[in-house]
Amino acid sequence: MSKFCFTLLSAIFLFFSHTASAQLMKAKELYNRADSLRGQLTPLRTCYDIKYYHLDVKVDIDQKFIAGSNLFKFQVVERFNKLQFDLFDNLSVDRVTYQGKEIPFSREYNAVFITFPQYLEKGKIDSFKVEYSGNPVQATRAPWDGGFDWKKDSQGKPWVATACQGLGASVWWPNKDHLSDEVDSMLISVAVPNGVMNVSNGRLIKTEKLKNNYSKYHWKVDNPINNYNVALNIGDYAHFKETYLGEKGNLALDYYVLKENASKIEHLKKNAKETLKALEHWFGPYPFYEDGYKLVETAHLGMEHQSAIAYGNKYMNGYLGRDGSGTGWGMKWDFIVVHESGHEWFGNNITAKDLADMWIHESFTNYSEALFIDYFYGKEASQAYVNGNRKGIANDLPLQGPYGVNKEGSGDMYNKGGVFHNMIRTMLDDDDKWRSILRGLNKQFYHQTVDYQDILTYMNQETGIKLDKAFEQYIQHKSIPTLEVIEVRPSTFMIRWISEVKGFTMPVHIFDKDGKKIRIEPKSNFQSYKIEGLTKASFKVDTFNYYIGVSIQ
Q1: Sign of the CA dihedral 182, 293, 418, 165?
Q2: Is 0.85 topped by the overall pTM?
Q3: Mind listing the pLDDT tens digit for each residue in 382-403?
Q4: Rounded alpha-carbon distances, angstroms, from residue 160 to 146, 207, 271, 297
Q5: For a tag on the chain, would you pick the N or C end, based on fewer CB atoms within 10 A?
Q6: Helix 452-463 vs helix 468-476: crossing angle, to nearest 10
């Protein structure tokens, strides 16, 4: 190597090293100690595995005030005498008790640290109780920001809901607020003024009449549930119920709608049953038969609260009467019923371990909309809907966020994520196998938390296609690859991928002279392809189903 080349390479290395260091420093500056406390799995969190909660809270609607307690039942994973739980610092921790006695605690941002009187040994099952109170954060734009949504219905009666995805459930109740540790089961007890009722997750097992014109509703959740799914819904509700015969037998369907909207119940019943029929077909049995399926009317648009889906789409088809795909297919069903129900499989059954992988929830659930269309209207309609959704893609940031700071990736995780799954289906070109893969995904990771690598490994194994580079491109980068095609002579072409992913490779379909699809597997270096009867002018790529750039020369 010449001295000049060595000097040049050294300069390039120093430039990129300096650039990488600067980017790392900038990333660190974006996140602070509070983000790390919220997003990191430190030994003070991993030392215990949460098994059971009993959340018991009274809601003073006039004062927008809550007070109550949460019992933490846990198993010791590693010997410890100190742990962390989470509660937003605008709420007071009134006391923490262990074995009937108060124990000391300290606070830092929204983290709370408690110290036990002795070390707890590995394997031990134990518990402590947190009593708390205060005025919780008020959501100003639920469900896109978090907290309590204090509203009134048209009759002036209270209409209150919680929504806290992303921000975190510790915005209104004390818990171990990290997606990686779902509680196995819980009891939710909520006291509200007479004249309204509370609807939460799971099944209503008891209603208590209290003093001072309050009633308490006890809801039992038998399945694992992530924290942000735990919900309160308070209103003057009419209750309708029916039974749906699904893949695992009878499933209880419950609908809680404002009494003023009781006449519109058939819209929800129709959409709920059609959704369950389509999604059980594609994804397997509804994951929470023991807890039932509910739709609960809210003032905000909607949220995937497990077994108690928040519904606010005003009994309209489409997304508040609109079809984001522009194809018309989105106007044939109620967007919120389908989308939020889709989360019962992706988000609730299969849950990301870190908010960085929220794309797992939203990409598959966006794609569930297309599969609903596929079930009732056919594959072409489904693919047209997916293609139409591309207009909503910004390509601004990667779909995956940074780990350990409670930060999700780009909003493209919805539409671009759905497009990506349709691409994998197209690469596979075997719809029966694709269906078995989606059903198998929900069986393999039933009631589990997963990450990027879990999904990638499963997809590689089950499709038989090495998808590492495709996942890296579409999930971890913001841009899309370009297929470069150079005509050497009629019927002979040099083809490669242009991508910032090193060694990028991905199958893609082109069309022969008769319009028949051919799958080729280009790489990042040029390869020669002989395709009889094609010229530069007649060379066509399936860009309807592959979200890629194409350059034909």
Answers
A1: negative
A2: yes
A3: 999 999 999 999 999 999 999 9
A4: 13, 19, 24, 10
A5: N
A6: 140
